[in-house]
Amino acid sequence: MAGPIRGAALTVFWAAAGTIVATYVLFPAAILARGRLLRRPLTAADASPDATPDVTVIIAAHNEERSIGAKLANLLAAEYPADRRQILVASDGSDDATNAVVRTFAERGVQLLALPRVGKAAALNAALAEATGDIVVFSDANSMFVPDAIRAIVHPFADPRVGGVAGDQRYLRGGASGAMAEGERGYWDLDRMLKRAESQSGNVISATGAIYAVRRELIPPVPDGVTDDFITSTAVVAAGRRLVFAEDAAAYEPVASSGGVEYGRKVRVMTRGLRGVLLRRALLDPRRTGFYALQLLWHKLLRRLMVLPLIGLAVSSSLLLGAGPFYRVAAAGQALFYSLAAAGIALRGRPISKARPLAFPAFFCLVNLAALHAAINVVRGHRIDRWEPQRPTDRPPGEPGEPVESAGPVESGEPGEPRDPREPGEPREPVLDPDPATERVA
């Protein structure tokens, strides 16, 4: 290989390798260390656990007839005073039985906003205009709360510095399987650990739409074409307040029943998420937001664009095969990793695809491919303003008796065996009210 080409390949190889190691190893390690060494405890720790501020729960729904009955029964069974809780369903042009199901809950205090097809952002804004609670809790139609989730998510607001609280999204054990499903569950296990450390030392980066809460006065109008949970939750940091994590405020939902469905969802979410970062680019200034700016840069930009150094590493490795055994090992290692990923994708739906040596590489590659697709969408100016929720079709979410994914590693028993949901430190699984409306949509 000519000297200039080898020199360029070496530069690309080490720059790419350094970026990958920093993104996937060094920065997460720094977050975990910071969480241990620079703790910022909340004064909410001294507040009464029985505090029950007025709360509004908002669900934006479009054609959710299979999920919405179970969701509302789940919320009504929550351990929170009914006279302190407002439940709003903003139905965005639903043309199935969603509105009819919601109306069966009217006598129990559920309010329906039957809107024309306006998009999720406009639906949320309409619901916010009707909200009366001091704290607004947002959730998805297919996310099932543990019984004390609302009480757990409002508890940190006893600290006046707290403007928003991110709950803990978890996945049901039953239903979907395969590389994408297993990888998704593993990702959220890691995300939970990082959120815990981020919250201990400052702010989590943003919240997930399954369950999060924000003080009503801090919530801005939601613009089109962005991820609403990101824009709404980061408004807290933009206002100079804390965005913290409440691990006990858990919500369970199923993993997408196919890799294709989940891939399409990730492209949409990442496209809207990258546009959200552009709108919130002022938060990337460390002079304004301190360490949070680095967290945001790492999580929402570097990790989303990691496909570029991964490609650079693969190409440069192939050009450096003759440069020494180290580069040959590096090339062989990447070839093995991507071969396992291809096998995991090709064998999706079969029991073997759930094995970690196949599931992790497959999930990693699909996510990075989705991120590249999303980045191209943003560069091309392609916006995604309308939403089409795509739910698993194998069984309704929150079906009674379905085991749930544990909050942490299994400490005893066979791998994958559900632990007692009442084990110390583990929130109880969602409890569904046997309401007739639920039975109609199950």
- Strand arrangement within the widest β-sheet reads 3-2-1-4-7-6-8-5
Q: Flag low-confidence runs.
A: 393-429, 431-442
The class by helix and strand makeup works out as alpha/beta
Q: Which quaternary structure do these chains form?
A: single chain
Number of helices: 14
Largest sheet: 8 strands, mixed
The proportion of residues forming helix, as a percent range, comes to 40-55%
Instruction: Kindly report how far apart the N and C termini lie.
Output: 64 Å
Quick one: how many beta strands? Answer: 8
Computed CA radius of gyration, to the nearest angstrom? 22 Å
How confident is the prediction overall: mean pLDDT? 82
Compact description:
With 442 residues, this protein is of the alpha/beta class.
Secondary structure layout:
Blueprint: H1 3-37, E1 55-61, H2 68-76, E2 85-92, H3 98-103, E3 110-115, H4 120-130, E4 135-139, E5 144-145, H5 149-154, E6 162-171, H6 179-201, E7 211-215, H7 228-238, E8 242-253, H8 259-279, H9 286-289, H10 291-302, H11 307-319, H12 325-346, H13 356-379, H14 436-441
Parallel strand pairs: 1-2, 1-4, 2-3, 6-8
Antiparallel strand pairs: 4-7, 5-8, 6-7
Helix pairs in contact: 1-6, 1-11, 6-13, 8-13, 12-13
Could you walk me through the main structural features you see in this protein, from its secondary elements to its overall organization?
46% of the residues lie in helices and 12% in strands. It contains 14 helices and 8 strands. An 8-stranded mixed beta sheet has the order 3-2-1-4-7-6-8-5. The protein is globular. The termini are far apart. The C terminus is likely disordered.
